[in-house]
Amino acid sequence: MQATRHKKIRYAFIAVLAAVATILLLWGTRNAFLHIQYKYPNQDYFANDTYSEIFHITYPSTFKTASKLMKQVDEAFSFIGTGFEAEKRFGELSRYSALIESYPNVACEEHRINFIASSFHNNTGYLWFSYYNRLYDNNHSSISGSGSLMGECLVRLTLNNVNAEWIVENIEEHP
Prior knowledge:
Elements: H1 2-42, H2 48-51, H3 60-78, E1 80-81, H4 83-90, E2 98-99, E3 108-121, E4 124-136, E5 142-146, E6 153-162, E7 165-174
Parallel strand pairs: 1-2
Antiparallel strand pairs: 3-4, 4-5, 4-6, 6-7
């Protein structure tokens, strides 16, 4: 009976140890991937201390806020209309909208955004994401775009909390 109990404890210990090792391995892989993908090609665009934010873990308690902001980013990319309408709806994020003043023959858009990291403290915060986008005319010919399928643009949003709502105050971007 005692030997069986010790075996169970040993197996439980090994399982916990394996789980911790797996988590550490995955975290290290994530950091290595982010380091290779974002750190080296873009080091001239952002300060080193700013770059370290990419490696920040977004905790579950703040992921809801980050998801809401990413939804706003997605909506800004999807919007096709006037600059006035875009500015009114999205503020600083309107720069990612397809403005008919700039592209009068735009018929549709395609984009991909990828959340990287975020942090929110008191009334300030930041959010990192990458993106690729294209604008097309009625013939489905590309008329504008940023990034490529292999090389996305890297963006850092500086955020302020105003009346319990996170507002984009500044956008830094590496093309």
